[in-house]
Every structure is written in C-alpha cells, then in structure tokens.
Structure prediction request, 743 residues.
Amino acid sequence: MGGSFPRRLPPAYRAAARRALRVTIAAGAGFYVLLYGFDLAVGATYALFGAIAMAGLSRLPGSGRQRATLLAGVVPVCWVLITLGTYLSVRTWSAVLGMLVVGFALAFMAVGGPRFAGAATGLQLMYILPSFPPYDPGSLVERLAGATFGLALLIVAELTLLPEPAALPYRERAARAADGAGRCAELLRTAPYTLPEAALRTARALSTGLRSSLVPEAERPAGAGIRQRALAHTGLATRTLLGRLAVLPPPAPGATPPAEAVDGAGTGGARDADPLRAVAEAAWETAARLRGGAPDGRAHARLQEARRTLAATEDGAPAALRRSAALLEVADAALAMSTAADIAVRGRAADPPAPGRFWYARQRAPRLWWRRLSGHAGGRSVFFQNAVRISLALAAARLIAGIDTLPHGFWVLLATLTLTRTTVRETRATERRALTGTLVGALVAAALLAFVGTDIEVYAVALPPLMLVTFTLGPVKGVGWAQALFTVVVALVFAQLAPATWQLAEFRLLDVLTGSAIGAVFGLLAWPRGAHDELRRSVAVLLRVVAESVVATTAQIAAGGRRVPVVTAPGHRGLQHALVMAESAYAQYQSEPRGPGPPPAHHPDWQAALIAGHHTLWGADRLLVPAEPVVVPPLGPEASEALVRSGDRVAAGMLLTSARMDPTGDTAETPVPLHAPTASAALAAEPPGAPRAYYATVSWLASLTIDLERLVAESRDGTGTDGEGGSGGATGAAGARVGERGR
Prediction:
C-alpha cells in the first residue's frame, strides 16, 4: 500500500498520520483478533500495548524498513523483559528492585546512539506492563505470544503501509564531500591557487551536510562498533580536509608549483611530487570506495609518499615553509579520510592502519562497547544522570503502587516514564499540561462510560478511529492533547476487557496525578537543571585540559627528542574523555526547551569550545605521533622562545575562558575582560632558521586561536549557541565519534 496524504496537510500532520495509521492497524488488529477471535484477553492486551509501546509512545528513527529491522531485533529483548517482569512482580520488593535495575539499564542504553535511545521508552513499557496484577506466571506463554503477534503486525505495517522515502545515507554524504574535496584540490593546483567563491560555497555546503544535527537520526554513525566509528571518523576527516583546503595559502611569488612542473616536463617523478594531485586522487578513490567500489589503493599509497616528501622538507623561505606546513595538514586529513573510509567499508578486513587515531580498528565489538559504557559510568555523564533519574522515579512509583495497591498501577509508571523530563522546569510545564489534558479526557471518558454502559460493540467500533486521531494529534498538538485523547483510548480498551464504570476515568486521573508527582519530585532532586550546569562544567574542564595539552605540546616540539608511534600523544586520553563528556552534554542541552522569554543577551558559543577540543586533539597527535620512530632535533633558541610564548598565550586564553564558564559559584561575577590573541599575531613571528616543525605548530596554534576568538566573542543575536551555526570545517556537538575514551 503506497501513496501519501493530501498535500494540504502540514508536513508534521502528514508524518504523524502515517505513523498513527500503522500503529492503529497493528495494535487494533492484534487486539481484536486475539480478544474476539480466540478469546485471549491477556494476549490481546499485550498485542495492543506492545504495538503502542514500540511505535505510538516511542520514536524509532529512520524509514519504514529501518524501523522494521530494529523492531525485529528487539523482539527477543521484549521476551526477556516480559519474562522478568512476570516473575519479579509476584513480590513488591523484587518488583521494585527489578524496576530499579532494568529501568537504569534501558535508560542508559541511550549511549548506543539514536536507535537505542528511540527504543528505550518502548522497552521500558514492555517491562512495566507485566509488573502489575494479575500476578500470574502461568499466563507467561500467552503474554509472550500476544506481544510477539502485535510486534509482528507492526513490523509488517512498517514495511508496507505508506512507506517514507529513504534518507540519503551517511556514506553517500561522505562520498559526495570527498568528491568535492578532490575537485577543490584539483582547482588549487593551478593559478590563482585559491578557490573561487562558488567552490567555497560548495565546500561549505558539503561540510555542513555531514554535521550530526543535520543528518537524520537513523543515518548518524553514532554506534560503538568499528564500522560506525570509522564512518564518523571519515566524516570528521572529510570536513577537516575541506576546511584546510579552503584556507590553503598560495605559493610564494616566483615559486613553481608541482602542477606546472608536470605540465612542462611531463615526468612521473614530478607528478608524484605534487601533493595536491595526490590528495585529489585519494579523495576520488575514497568516494569510489564509499559507493561500493573496490579501488586498488594506489592513490592512498601515492599520498603517503607525497606526505613523507613534505615531512622531509626543512629548507626554504618562511613563506615556503608555511605553505609546506599547510600542505602537510591537508595531506594528513586526506590520509585520515582514506584510511577511515577503508575501515568503514571493510571493517576488520581493512589494511592495518598505523597506530594512533585508528585505535579501534583491531578491537572487537564487546571491547568497544565496554569502553563506551565505562566512559559514561559516572555522575558527570548526562546519560548516566538521566538513567539514574528515571530508574529511581520508576522504582519509587512501583513501590507506591505496590504498597497502596493502586488500581491500574501500570498507569502510574506510564505517567512517570512519559512525563519526567531532564529539567525540573520542563517537567513542571509538561505535567501541568498533562494533568489538564488528563482531567478533560477523564471527564469525557466518564461521561462515555456512564452513557454507553456495557455496550461493548460501541467501544469496539469507536476505538480504531479514536486511536488514529490520538496518535495523529498527540505528537503535533502536544502532551495535553495526547493525555486527553489517550485517557479516552485507555477507557475504551479496558471497557472491552472487563465491565467498567465511570470510576475507571477517576482511577486514570488519580494514577496520572501520582505518577506525575513522583516524576516532579525526582526531577527536582536529581540534577534539576538538566544539561545546563553540566554543559558549563564539562566545557570548563575541556578548556582546562586543552590548555594543558597546548603547553605540553609546544614544550615537546621546542625540546625535540625521540618519538615513536603510539595510540595517542601522552596525556591525550584525558582530553578525549573530556571531549566526549562535553559533546554529550551539549547534545542534551540542544534538545531541552529554553523556556519562555527571549534568549539571554550574552551566551557562549558552545560549539566553538568543542571545535577547539577536536583541533587540539588532532593537531597535537599529528605533531607528536610519527608514523615510525624518529629522533627530532630541538628548535633553535629564538624559534623555541617564540613558539612557547605563542602556546602560553593560547593556553592563558583557554584558562581565562574556562574560569568564566565554570558554574562553581566562586568565580568573579564580572571577570577580567579577555582579549584573545589573534591568528595573525600567532603567525607574525618568523625566527630565522626556524624548521618546518615550527611553522606546522604555529599553524595549529592559529587554528586554536580562531576557535578561541569565536568562543570569547559572545553571541548577541542567538546564533551559534543553541543551533549549530559556525565553523563549516569542524565538527558539531555530537558529530565526532572518534579516538575517544569511553565510547
């Protein structure tokens, strides 16, 4: 069955109506077939609520086929949850303990990415449903059969009813960006050696298209596995390459670029010496690999050779060395892109990469998942905070429902689960609207039950159209409408399962009131400000670690010494972890409503801090982690002094900014004005005889300075803070999933 709803409907209503139709058909068919066809009231209940839980109350991302695949994978999980809930519900203490443990585990699974987060609410409900009377382990088989039947119908509905067009895969987005990078590199090989405005606009658009916030949730490479990490790494490296190509300085006046040498001499040696030609070919090879081709890898090998040639260049004028350093950054980004794409496509079968940023390439999935879970197992992770908050609230709701033997206690936990938010302000506003809607729905349900009485046929006829309206208007009109309509739906369902009076609506209102009160209490006690304070704290920590890394890196570059290939530069595991915490806090902060009123006049550009963290991590590793063991001579006295001084200025700016971000309360209300060093100032010093390593480090410090300038210049128009406006050549809040501890 295909087609679409009338175009006069707004897009939000069309999308909601598609989903509502699938839920209504799957839930209704399962309910009616089992109840009226086989007289299985328990199985009918589980078929109905199984479909509603996983599609009506959850938001699974992706197209119909993607959602169907995800649903097929969670069916065995639902069996386990229903079985646990059935046996643990016999005693209140075991039910409460199970709710605490299972509730935390299911909420914490959001660290696995949008698909896991989308399924968490539905899985919670699959455990909550059997946790209440009747306490009948003997009906377990019927419960499992009913839930399976409802989910099977939902899978079929997702595959066949009004399927949406599939979104552009992330691999194709990365392939298009790699193609664009190849074209930019080819344009930079000839005069005027800068990108025209049209090419710059295209490069910015391709880079922006890889931002996590602009990619549909189902297509975001946010998983912990090798291929997902490598695909995210490919996107980040491609964005970095596009950004580096856009600011590549032209050759010094009078210099002969390799491209012109090729045109004049036509020798293969000159061709191989052209780094931009090697970058372009590697980018096109990457695009072909991402699209399913099987390139031979020669372009990657030529780029490696060109990179080694660049790294060996030590002589020349300052302008030539500066361009050589910039070309080396371009080559490194292109090599990272090519290597990451190979791992993303071939997984563990890919060619073994050099140690360093591809630490995950030879690790097995359990180890990678353990790193991610353990990295977020602490009070500074918003994923951990959310899991603790909801598990404690659910356990308390189950305890109260068990002690007071509330009728239909399932509704208490349902209200607690669906109405608890990450901030106390949002929870309060949500519950006010929800209680108003529930009161209206209870009055309507009470009147309907009193008027119709025990005429089950009326309820059976009215349920499907009401479900269709409920799941169409609820997601669009808000929680008040959703609660009002769902209250009537629940009344019609239970009126068909057993004789019901108007008091059923009273019980529904009482249970929702109890559940919302429990959610409000735990929202107030457990991190009531949500991600706001955690974001400020995590960004402050990130900037302090960045400052330490800048000082340590410049000191090591100045001192020289023996360097060997390692997973990451010494001290950078702490930076990786700080970056992970800041990104997750920023991702939640973006999803939280800001409340009424205009945005504040002064607010930091959080994205600039995250970009600075990535630039620090990548740049320092590039400068300090060689492809093979090497002994690096120290810089001269003048070069060392200039480099350390530049690094100290950047680090001081980071520390001052960190003090302004930290919400500990002991920072001066009016801090000393911060004047960040400018990128031009960082590049101004040209000590005589400075080697290429000096200019490569100064170029890195200049990029950090630009990030700091954006961070210090607080936005006054609301852009760049709550959204993702800003740098087109760096990663956004949650888009970079590479080289991290705890991911």
Residues 261-271, 593-602, 668-683, 714-743 have pLDDT under 50 and may be disordered. The longest helix spans residues 318-346. The two ends are 41 Å apart (CA to CA). Residues 315 and 691 are 7 Å apart (CA to CA).
